[in-house]
Design brief:
single chain, Immunoglobulin-like, eight-stranded mixed beta sheet
């Protein structure tokens, strides 16, 4: 028989992906980092009196100081500050001083107008690096024309014409040191040379003229120094050094070691608040370890810690600044992977121990039934709260609070409540812990949807796949309800947008309502219960797929013969196998093929499948198969197959019965 076409089977593979978000809790409360418009960084200064942060980038190619508000949003830039490096506020907060490496000068900027008011040249062969204000003078560290002979000088602001003056008695340094001074203006000035192992440290008395060296040494407990600060009152200085992994305290009088504040890899910044609270930051982010530590003066155990939850960002060198009232800490974060991406993290109430509230319970509950909620109050930095700590839970519906529960915690911080909401709706329970002088407040919420009781509603249809014109017997069953015992049964033919009501009525004493349906197409059956005062609405659906009916007649034979269990139609090689196919229901324009198999070696094997033939407007197709190439006296069988397509999915693909053929001569 002539081969006409081959069938192809297409398969579709759908790949589903899933993601996860890991949130790491922190002890302190930190805002979302704000990206900073800089590609390098040297120092940050906080002027909370005017609501500004000043940021220098420490690059000879930068000619401005960035000014942001206290959230990190850019306010402006102060131009003309070529190669700005170190910056520092005067004790009264009215003036910002800046070391300009490209201009070989120190400038003064009015913090209220953000305008430059003075410029103090330090000599064309001197390159300023850092500035600090103490004893009425601006102290400047700078590189000289001689390599490895950096120095410290000053600008006397009380002079009629303030001018730069070198101070050779303060010593010579391999590189310009970083400077820090006592914020209480006691006369203590300290210096540390960065990026050396060990780091040279020095302490000076600036309250005398000329200034004198109090102490100088290189200590093994500060390698690769990155930041330093003086404790208010001037008794101690604290360093942030790349190694060892701690921030050491030294006496400003003789630089003897007084203790240390523990941290992790690698200490990069230290800042001391006006109340003496010490903040230290580390350079390389590690989601499993704190990035920030907060200590009381001379404390050994952290008051608090903070983990930014990032593996690629840490605190930039010299990247910390306190607000004047110690209520906020401003931290510049540096991307430790790329190295030139920076952001600002604002940390609120950094010395308060963080607390966490949890509140859990069911997401839905039945009207009239009680709802049990459980919660827990814990400290995120470790430690415990005393039993009997008050927690308030407020119940709200539609955004309005309608009930308050005053609770107390057990010894383990747990608490619970049981409530019966009075009506349908979504009830939000919000737990609040007010906090204390040492612990930050916390809140948590949980929403419960109060619904009617879901009814026990089912729909049975017997078999899920049936023949064309089969009778489907449907039974809807409704369990116990409050008052309503009526259900409705619908049918919606596949491909149709409309459903047809088959029957509406009260269920019988067994809870059943039955109806029969003659299925011509695949159909979605549904039973609907409208609900009542205590029972919710419900709809249950069941699909029944219906095969198309394919009828095939075969003619053109000259006789028949019974072989085994089958009657074979007999053909000559010169004859045709005439085929007529009818498909019900009407499938005008859809596809029918004829499949042929041959029998040998004790089994039926594929022989050929014809091309697709389209059904006529009356759902018929006529054709024939030539047998001039058929093997003589070899059994053949053939059948028509209706192939469902996307153009009509209302019936399943179906094959007609086999017809058996022999070609004798």
């Amino acid at each position: 028989m002539r081969h006409r076409a081959k069938l192809r089977v297409a398969s579709i593979i759908t790949s589903l992906g899933a993601g996860a978000l890991l949130v790491l809790p922190s002890a302190a409360r930190a805002s979302t980092p704000v990206s900073l418009p800089i590609t390098s960084f040297y120092q940050i200064v906080a002027d909370t009196a005017h609501g500004h942060l000043f940021i220098s980038e420490g690059s000879s190619s930068i000619n401005h100081i960035l000014v942001t508000d206290l959230t990190g949003q850019q306010v402006t830039t102060i131009a003309g500050q070529n190669g700005v490096m170190g910056i520092n506020l005067s004790p009264d907060g009215k003036t910002l001083y800046a070391a300009l490496s490209a201009n070989h000068a120190v400038t003064a900027i009015d913090t209220s107008t953000l305008q430059q008011t003075a410029s103090y040249p330090i000599g064309s062969m001197n390159t300023p690096q850092d500035v600090a204000v103490q004893s009425g003078k601006v102290w400047v560290s700078y590189a000289t024309a001689t390599p490895a002979a950096a120095a410290i000088g000053d600008i006397d602001l009380s002079a009629k014409l303030p001018a730069f003056q070198a101070q050779p008695g303060l010593g010579s340094f391999y590189n310009p040191p970083e400077l820090a001074a006592d914020p209480q203006d006691s006369g203590f000035l300290v210096a540390a040379v960065p990026n050396l192992t060990p780091a040279p440290l020095a302490s000076f008395n600036t309250s005398v003229d000329p200034p004198t060296v109090r102490a100088a040494l290189s200590t093994a407990n500060c390698e690769q120094e990155e930041d330093l600060a003086v404790v208010p009152g001037g008794t101690e200085l604290i360093t942030a050094c790349g190694a060892p992994y701690a921030n050491y305290r030294f006496s400003t009088t003789d630089l003897s070691e007084q203790g240390s504040f523990a941290s992790t890899t690698y200490p990069s910044a230290v800042a001391i608040a006006a109340n003496g609270t010490v903040a230290v930051g580390t350079k390389y982010g590690d989601p499993s370890k704190p990035d920030m530590y907060f200590y009381a003066p001379n404390g050994d155990t952290p008051l608090n810690t903070l983990n930014f939850g990032s593996s690629s960002a840490g605190v930039a060198s010299r990247g910390l600044a306190w607000s004047a009232d110690a209520s906020q800490l401003f931290a510049v974060l540096q991307d430790s992977v790329g190295g030139n991406t920076y952001s600002l993290q604002v940390i609120d109430d950094p010395t308060l121990a963080g607390s966490t509230l949890s509140l859990a319970g069911p997401s839905t509950a039945i009207l009239g039934k009680s709802v049990a909620l459980t919660g827990s109050l814990t400290l995120t930095a470790g430690g415990t709260l005393p039993a009997g700590t008050p927690v308030t839970v407020t119940r709200s519906v539609s955004g309005a609070a309608d009930k308050v529960f005053d609770l107390t915690t057990a010894a383990d911080g747990s608490f619970s409540l049981t409530d019966t909401p009075p009506a349908l709706g979504h009830y939000t329970y919000t737990a609040n812990y007010a906090g204390s002088t040492t612990v930050a407040p916390a809140a948590a919420s949980h929403t419960v949807a109060i619904t009617l009781k879901p009814p026990a509603l089912t729909l049975t249809t017997g078999r899920s796949t049936v023949r064309y014109l089969s009778t489907v017997h449907l039974t809807a069953h409704l369990g116990p309800t409050h008052t309503n015992r009526t259900v409705s049964i619908y049918a919606q033919t596949v491909g149709s947008r409309h459903r047809v009501l088959l029957k509406t009525g009260r269920v019988n004493s067994r809870g059943d309502l039955t109806v029969s349906y003659v299925a011509r197409h695949s159909v979605m059956f549904s039973v609907v219960f409208a609900g009542d005062a205590q029972d919710g609405q419900a709809t249950v659906k069941r699909m029944v797929n219906v095969f198309a009916k394919v009828t095939m007649t075969v003619r053109g034979n000259y006789g028949t013969r019974r072989v085994g269990h089958h009657t074979y139609l007999l053909y000559h090689r010169s004859g045709h196998v005439d085929v007529a196919v009818t498909v019900a229901p009407n499938k005008h324009g859809q596809c029918v093929v004829v499949q042929v198999q041959s029998y040998f070696r004790g089994a039926w094997h594929p022989n050929t499948t014809t091309n697709c033939a389209l059904l006529s407007s009356t759902s018929h197709v006529l054709g024939y198969l030539t047998v001039n190439q058929a093997s003589l006296n070899i059994p053949y069988r053939l059948r028509a197959i209706y192939l469902r397509s996307n153009g009509d999915i209302s019936n399943l693909s179906t094959a007609a019965s086999w017809h058996y053929v022999l070609v004798e001569r």
